[in-house]
């Protein structure tokens, strides 16, 4: 049995799609680590969908939402975590007098808002894919219904 509410342990965390520097994750709240894992799971779901399309020899068009989300997840997210780590952990320990609590709190708030934004974009992307598949199934059903034999 694994307690789902037990605090996460960085060395034991596994990432399916995200390439994150574990050092940059130190100092994050447990809720933020869990949110990163949800983001990773959603990215993996999207990648599975993309692989399934390629296996069917379908080359999907990339929407603006997909392009921006990919850039956020694979480029900006690691950059944000690095900046947050620098402000929150490294600078706070070395220069506590220089870096005030207000800046650390702002850094934490900005990171949280960014994580929320990324997760919302992934939710929108996955919802769009589900809606598209549902639309295709409805179209197939209408086709079959229109060609019923008496």
What's the number of helices? 4
Helicity level: over 70%
Main sheet attributes: strand count, strand direction, barrel closure:
none
Order of helices and strands: HHHH
Whole-angstrom Rg: 21 Å
Shape: elongated
Structural class: mainly alpha
What does this structure look like?
With 150 residues, the chain is mainly α. The protein is 71% helix and 0% strand. The chain has four helices and no strands. Helix 2 packs parallel to helix 4 and helix 3 runs antiparallel to helix 4. The relative contact order is 0.12.
Indicate the topology:
Elements: H1 22-25, H2 30-55, H3 64-94, H4 101-146
Helix pairs in contact: 2-4, 3-4
What's the quick description here?
This protein is 71% helix and 0% strand.
Keywords summarizing the entry:
single chain; 150 residues; mainly alpha; 4 helices; 0% strand; elongated
């Amino acid at each position: 049995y694994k307690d789902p509410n037990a605090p996460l342990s960085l060395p034991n965390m596994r990432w399916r799609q995200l390439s994150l520097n574990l050092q940059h994750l130190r100092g994050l709240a447990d809720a933020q680590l869990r949110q990163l894992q949800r983001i990773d799971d959603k990215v993996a779901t999207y990648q599975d969908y993309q692989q399934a399309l390629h296996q069917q020899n379908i080359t999907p068009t990339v929407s603006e939402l997909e392009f921006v989300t990919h850039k956020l997840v694979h480029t900006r997210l690691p950059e944000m975590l690095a900046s947050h780590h620098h402000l929150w952990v490294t600078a706070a320990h070395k220069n506590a007098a220089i870096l005030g609590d207000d800046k650390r709190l702002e850094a934490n708030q900005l990171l949280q808002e960014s994580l929320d934004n990324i997760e919302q974009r992934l939710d929108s992307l996955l919802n769009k894919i589900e809606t598209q598949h549902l639309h295709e199934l409805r179209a197939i059903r209408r086709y079959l219904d229109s060609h019923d034999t008496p």
